[in-house]
Design goal:
Blueprint (H helix, E strand, L loop, with lengths): L1 H16 L7 E9 L3 H9 L2 H9 L4 E8 L7 E6 L4 E11 L4 E9 L6 E14 L2 E12 L13 H16 L3
Antiparallel strand pairs: 1-7, 2-3, 3-4, 4-5, 5-6, 6-7
Helix pairs in contact: 3-4
Length: 175
């Protein structure tokens, strides 16, 4: 167990290493869901939330491709946005079932295309009661020095929309 925690810490630390001389900024969104944390985590843990979001936001997401992996650590995912000329690629670097945390590192596109040096997306599913939880979506990012005046930012709206979609889907399909 200690080895697993140490390895997870190492992975997260190595993601931030590229931004060590830069200040990481955060954009965060939280949404309460009236469904147990385990059910929400099932959707977020692998590719479920990505596929559901792409299906529901066809006017925003043209396609989603799994470039590598099966939804676990190491999976590379590419989202192509309408009208199809911009995309975002990320790699899942941490999936912690015990804490219900998923972390992905941006590889290209997104705010990396407009002046950010790092983009790290983290989802936390936080249990409130046995029948409710919080979906916390966070984007940590660092801006390249030469782009600081432009103040480029990632867009948290897609993650917030995904949480809303998850909430509607899970709350309407309660057993």
């Amino acid at each position: 167990m200690l080895k697993q925690v140490s390895f997870i810490f190492f992975l997260v630390l190595s993601c931030y290493k590229g931004a060590e001389s830069q200040e990481l900024k955060h954009l965060t969104d939280e949404l309460q869901v009236n469904v147990g944390a385990d059910r929400v985590w099932e959707l977020y843990r692998h590719l479920g939330i990505s596929r559901l979001t792409a299906q529901q936001l066809k006017n925003v997401i043209q396609s989603i491709q799994v470039l590598e992996g099966d939804g676990g650590v190491g999976t590379m995912l590419k989202l192509t946005f309408v009208p199809g000329n911009s995309s975002y690629t990320e790699r899942f670097i941490v999936i912690n079932d015990e804490k219900r945390v998923k972390v992905a590192k941006g590889l290209e596109g997104g705010c990396l295309a407009i002046g950010c040096s790092d983009q790290i997306v983290q989802f936390d599913i936080i249990e409130k009661t046995k029948d409710s939880c919080i979906i916390r979506s966070d984007i940590a990012y660092a801006v390249k020095k030469e782009f600081e005046a432009n103040d480029p930012k990632p867009n948290i709206q897609l993650l917030a929309a995904a949480a809303q979609i998850a909430k509607k889907f899970l709350e309407s399909s309660k057993i």
